[in-house]
Each structure stands twice: as C-alpha cells, then as structure tokens.
Amino acid sequence: MAEAHPVGFQWVMEAKARGATVIHVDPRFTRTSAVADLHVPFRAGADIAFLGGLIHHVLENELDFREYVTTFTNAASLVGEDFLDTEDLAGVFSGYNHETGRYDPISWQMDGAYAAPAAGQRDHWESELREERARFTSDTAGGAGDQAYAPADPERDDTLQHPRCVYQVLKRHYARYTPEAVSQVCGMSVEQFLTVADAITKNSGRERTTAWVYSVGWTHHSVGVQYIRAAAILQTLLGNMGRPGGGILALRGHASIQGSTDVPTLYDLLPGYIPMPNAHLHSDLQSFLDADAAKTGFWGHMDAYLISLLKAWWGDAATADNDFAFDYLPRLTGNHGTYGIVRDQIDRKTFGYFVVGENPAIGHANGKMQRLGLANLEWLVVRDMQMIETATFWRDGPEIETGELRTEDIGTEVFYLPCANHTEKSGTFTNTQRLLQWRREAVHPPGDARSELHFYYHLGRKIREKLAGSTDERDRPLLDLTWDYPTFGVHSEPDPESVLAEINGFDADGNHLSSYTQMKADGSTSGGCWIYTGVYRDGVNQADRRKPGSEQDWVASEWGWAWPANRRTLYNRASADADGRPWSERKAYVWWDEEAGRWTGHDIPDFEAGKPPSYRPPEGATHEDALSGTDAFIMQADGKAWLYAPTGLADGPMPTHYEPVESPVANMLHAEQDNPAREDIVRAWNRLNPSMSDTYPYVFLTYRLTEHHTAGGMSRFLPYLAELQPEFFCEVSPALAQERNLEHLGWATLISARTAIEARVVVTERMKPLRIGDNVVHQIGLPYHWGSNGLSRGDPANDLLGVVMDPNVHIQESKVATCDIQPGRRPRGPALLEFVESYRRKAGVEPGGIT
Amino acid sequence: MGARTWLGEWPMFRQATGPDPLGRGAAVQSPRTKALEARTRDADEVVKSVCPYCAVGCGQNIYVRDGRITQVEGDPDSPVSRGRLCPKGSASTSLVTSPTRVTTVRYRRPYGTEWEDLDLDTAVDMIADRVIDARRRGWQDTDDEGRVLRRTLGFSSLGGATLDNEENYLIKKLFMALGAIQVENQARI
Ligand code: SF4
Fold first, then answer.
1. Are residues B137 and B182 in the same domain?
2. Most CB within 10 Å of its CB: which of A199, A437, A473, B133?
C-alpha cells in the first residue's frame, strides 16, 4: 500500500501512531513492510491456505464474534443433504463435471430453500432452464443480484451444532488448514502464523475492529474471487463487516477503475451491476427479471432500476407496450471477456478495436498475444496522450525484431487520436472508496486533442447521421437513442453535467431524482445508473462539493459524493447489535434512536431509516419488506452475510487452496493440483509451463513501483519519474543469485514458455527463499511498467506471462507464474525464438507460434 | 553601506546569529533567491481537480496563468489526501505540459511503414464508416437455434480506467445501441 497507494497509506500510519498494529503479508519486503509492525514473507499464490488457516484458527478455538455471527450471517442455516465437500471428493465439490471442467451448483443449495446470490452467477437457480443452461458457458459472472427465488426460510440451528449447519460445514472444510499445514504451504513459520492469528482475533469484537486491505495481488489469480471470499468469511466471523475500522478494502489501481465497473465498460454488465441479458435465458423483460431480479431485498427493485435505465437510453421509444425497449439490448451467449476478444482478433473473427487510455501491448498478460491481436485487425483506434507501444506495434514491436511479423505484411489501419488530459475536461472519477469527485476543466485541450466525451458523442452523432432514414430493424436502437446533449465551445464539447444529470435520473415531471428509492417500474422515471442516483440531487452537482476536510467530522460526508446515497461505509446497520445499540461506545457508528423512531449516527444508515430492529416480515412480504430489522445485508435476498455461498460462484461454495496453474510444488492440502474450474486458452502463442518443472523452477510475481503507473503511458514519458526509476529490473535473493551466478546490477534473462526477457539484476535480502514442504522455493520480483517507447525503456514483464483465468470474472493469473533465470542478456532477433523453443522442448511443452 | 548591513548579508553571520541555525531557510537566502517567487503566486486561477493516477483520488489544485498550466499541487482541503501527493501525483505538471505529448492525429495506412497526417474530422468520419461496416459484417440476428441475439461481434472496445464516469457512460450507451457487446476495461485486468 505504501508503494502503490502512497497517500492513502498516510491513514495507516495515522492509525499506527494511535496504537494500531500494522501487519504486512507479502512475498516481498517493500516500503510497506519497512514501517509495518510485522512483515510476514510468504509464497505467492498460497493466500487461501493462509486465510483458510485463519478461518480454521477462529472456528477451532471458537474465537468468532458469536452474537454478530448469529445475528447477521447464515452460519445457522442448514446446507442440503446432497452437498459433498472437497473432503469427501478428493479436492472437488459435488457437481463437478470432469469432462467440461465446470460445476453444476444444484447440490450446494441450502436445505429447503433456493437462495440466489447478490453477485456473480445470477442465473444458476432458474430451474426450468437449468438443464439448458448447463450446456452453455455461464456469462453473467460479475453481475450483482441474483436474488431470484429468494427462499422460504431455510432450516436453521441457532445452536450451531447441527452437522449440516454452515458453521459446522465450514469447520470441516477447513479442518486440515492447521497452523502446521499453513506453515508448510505458505513458507511462514508456525509462530509467525500464530502471531498474525492472535493479533487479528484479539483486535476484533465489540471494542475493536480489524481491516484487511488488498489489491490486484488478490484478484490476479486463477482463484482470485475465492481469495476475496476467504477474506469475507474471516471478516464476517470476526464481526468486522459494516463497522468503522473494519471491512475488506480493495485498493484499486486507477483513478476511476471503480467507476468503470459501476458505469461499466464491461461486457457482462449494465450500469449499476445489472447483468447483461442472455440469449438462452432472457427472451423478454419478464423472463429477465424472473431469472435475475430477487424477490426479496433491494435487488427486488431491479425492474425499476432497469426500466429507468431503458428510459434514459431510449426515452419515448421505450414504452410499456414494447417492454420498455428491452429488446433493443444485445444478448450474450458466452464469455466475451478481453482475452476471448483478443483470441478472436487473432482468428480474424472481429475486425475493429478501440483502445482508449490503455496500453495492452505492455500492460496485459501475454504481450505477444495482445500484439498478435492488434496485427490481425482491420482497423485500430488508439486514443492517448503519448506514443504508446499499442500504437506503434507495427513498426517496433518485439515480433518485428524476431521476424515473426513484418511491418509491410501488417494490414492494420491505425488511427492515433490525441486525447484530452484530466485538467482539460470536467467530469467525475470514482475513487477506491466509491467516492465520486468532480474535476473542473482548467484549460482547453491542445491541437486535435479531445475528451472521450467529445469523441464518442460526435462519433455517435456521425453514425446516426449516416444511418438516418434506415428502415432496417437493427438500426432502430441507434436511431431511437437519446443522443442530444447540449454542447459548448469552439469544438462543440458536450456538457458533462448534462450526462451526469442523465445518469442521476429524472422523475415524471423532469425533476432530478434524489434517491434510487424513487425509481419506478412503470416507465415514469429515468436514470442511467441507479446506484449513482442522488449525485445530482436538487440539480446540484454533489460530486463537486468541496467543504474542506478540516471543517468536517472524520466521516467528511460533505466532500464529494459516495454511492449509494452518500453512504461511506456499506452495510453499516451491522455496526449496531440486534437491538440497534452500538456494539460499544468506542465503535459506535450507526444506531437506532428509539425516541425518534429512526436510524441515525455518524454516517448515513445503509438501512431503511424507519425500520425498527424489532421488525419481522409478515408472511408473503417481498422486496425490502421481506427483510427483518436485523437483516443488515440488504442487497442479499435473505439479508445475511454468506459464510457459505450456495450459489453465485463458478468454482465452489467455499474457498479451497489450489496451487497456481504454474507452481514449483504439489498441492499439499488437496489431491487436485490447481483450480479444476479455471479457464484456459490453448494456443501456440499461449503455452503454459508445466508445474514442478526443472526447466522453469522459479516463481515470479509482477508488481508496481511508486514512481511508475501501470504500462507506463503516463510515467515512462515523464523525465522526473523516468529518472526516479530509470530501468527495468528483477529482484532476486542472494541465495538465488549464487545458485544462478547473477551479478548485482548485471543483466539477467528470464525465460517462460511464452518468451524470454532481460532485466537488470537487483540482489537483495528483501527477497527470501522459502521452505515449502521439502523444497526451497525462490521468488523473483518483476515490476511491469516497461516497454520500447518513452524516456525509460526496457522489456515488458507481462510478456513472460501466459493467460489462464478465474472462471467467475475471467481475470488472468498474473501475480504468480514460473520461469527460469540465467545471467546475461537475452538473444536477439530470430535467435530468441529458437532459445525459447529449446526451453519448451526440454520441458515437454508443445511448440510455440503466432497462429 | 554600513558594516551592519554588509555583515547581515553574509549567510554565515545570519546562520550563526539568526533564528535559522541549521541554515535551511532565511539564513542562506541570497538576493536572487529572495527575489524568486513560486509559480503558484502569480496564477490567474486555481482550479480544483483530482489526481489522474491511482484510485486514492488525491485532491489537486491546478494553477493556471495565461491559459496555461504552470503548476499542480496537492489540495489541502481534501479529506482524502490533506494536501499530499505522491511522486506520480507530484509529476502531474510534467504530465500535462509534456513536450513529447502528441497533439495531432497520426494515421498509418494498411501495410504502411510510416505515420501520415490526417485531419481530425476526416479521421472521425472514416472511423464512423468502419464502425458501420464492421458492425454489419459481424452482425448476428439469431443463434443456430433461432434465439434472438441482435448483436455484432465486428468490433470491440478496451479501456480505460482513467476515463470519467460520464465518458464511460456514453461509450456503453453507444455500444449497446450499436449492438456491440464487446466492451471491456482495465477493470477486468
Ligand atoms: S497522488 Fe499518488 S496516491 Fe494520490 S491519487 Fe495520485 S497516484 Fe494516487
């Protein structure tokens, strides 16, 4: 955190100054470790073993915050009799199909109830379509509420003793994650593990809370979603969710990466985490809502959220008679994630590509795959500020050097359009804590540079002009689209506040909505992203509120605007006990004011303001009325935090340790080596290193430096930053340096089944060899910022990586893989290909290639 | 010039006798450094902004003079950052005034070996034509079993997590209306 989110880290240091213990669990010793109370080095890719060990420790010693657990979680619910655990089935759960490599989750359900998840695979439980669905790739992963078919109450045992209750199921699942096992798998000592276990359990409960902070070190794995699930289970058991100083904090890496998921430029989502419709399941609006909208909890209003969105997009053309133009939405049939798109580019199944403020030739796993995709396009639009490698692959990419591609043979037509920077346009970023902050335009963009708002608005305008008068049915959505934003200035810049106001939404009289609770399913309201409704309340740009922090309390709720409803901590009803009293004075945050008959506190309650703790839903209640006064997790169909997830996940209801797909060691916890449900792309340009291979014996991990930003487009071109970190390097331990004759500040070549790259060697005690079972595992650290352009140049670390993916979110495993390392520079030209091929031959890997 | 004044201009004397014994401030000022003014002093305007790098979202003050950015500083008002910026945020001035920034359209024709010039309007017009063409060729009305798809796989979009919400919104809205489902972002990466 001190490295990649330095200014955010000031709050950790502030907490430390007030007595907090800071523990850093990371394969590398970094600037964070340097100021932490404890640094625990461990093996990349072993996090579920570690977190599972902590869960085991909590359950085995009954250290959970019992009152919180029985009030707010599904610990007491009984799992159905058909469920079989990894303990019963040698490392896989029931429902695994060995032929397809996929799970059918029907056996994971709770006793007597179909529950559906608030995120992830939303359609699992659509019974009449289940069979059909099983034949197709799931493609609504990542969506929010699959709260369909909310249950009749599942069977419960509030004593938590029933062998099938979640608490006991969890306990059995993690029984083998003992401190000794964790030590073996992770390479930390039993004492180190117990020190951490002790610190977090002692620091949780009524009086204290513990926070977990992670970044892509958790998401970039073939089991990435289950990493986060494991943390969620632990934090829920310890009573650390929805409370001040608690939570699981995802530190996101870009100015508005949170915004990019909220208002998603992602294939599987509509704004506000509404899933994209699926051709196999959703023939019309009703079947979509039946499958995806919950009956209970706030996802019960998905109809109002979706219809308001359709009204925002298609205005008067969206009527009750035409399902509010639901049919205008294109349908998914499978995975259209970025790696599948690039595969299709290489296969010439897709022809054009817009790359906007992104440098995939350097910044994405398996750079060769990315560049081959670019080279097989008909046209490419790159919008950036500097001449990044994605724009110049055709003249100076690594494949030109090796002779795999020739400039004269590359048919890609490239449009490089300069873009405006953050000071040359107004608009909102959503930061990592869901805070929307408005930036004001300071100067005009120079020359041909324009904002994305300008480019896409005018591109859409031109396309609509060219198709005007078309009677083709497929052009209706385009011609009926609401696409007339007021513009200003010499370049006819669209007014960004008018777009923000559309996102916020309007009522039937054209007034700005102030809350998503005002949205209606009858077509009388509009709003482009329901979770952002309120950001333009009263016609005021709430994201531009700038009351100085020094004039506010510690919640600072008058700076910017946080979604939803300006709540700063989600699910904060859980900061009070069943009766609505703060768990302790020290940790008071939101509580029930009996006299006023309202929830109140330091933050805006994430709960219906007037629903008393004593509320119990009447028979047959729906939506939020079906949740009781203690159901704090209001987006869940049952209002509970799920320790066990009966649905929503593609790879199991509970996190299980699987080795990274490329690992130097065998899985010591389960018979299954790696995630049995992972996604692969088996192609010559994406060969994988076999695990436990002498040819690729070392682990490497990629990371960022404070002084550079992702693929370098905003840092390698700037003199200060290029000077601060001038060269690509690899970090190795003195022991590995000795083993491979690597010289400090000399050159090293790193080799995988994809390619070989060279880097300066930094020999440092910060990297520690680890004992894993009977093996010594060496880890190599690689910052991934470099490429061939800019002031500071070097080989891209991402070229070393292959692509294997988490099955839930189709994110690649780029935080751990294997390689060899040798002293000296890499071969140049065609000799590089032969060099890499010789390694593949030695390892028994099939030949590489570009098709 | 009296001896006192002369002595008073001697840094060593000031350091030894003044309130700056470590010689880090007033004691070591020369007439030239004394006359220097921060670029932030003579700005016409200070515009409120947010750092474009990581997701902490530190506040920035943009100092503008004569329509040009002269300096970017941390915004002390921000409860997120309290005026601080890290090395990246502090380098924002060089980001927005970079001499290597490309400010004109560059065009590489198929099989071309060099960049060429192209007028911006022409470029956007050409792109619009290519979108319409790729959309048509990648169009799918239904799948093999007759289920409605109403989409195109002819082109796709990637990026970028430094785009504004308003910009992402227009991208998604336009692509959905075009039937183009292949919209992706750094958020997947
Ligand atoms: S100044 Fe540094 S920590 Fe703050 S938002 Fe910018 S990059 Fe992130």
1. yes
2. A437
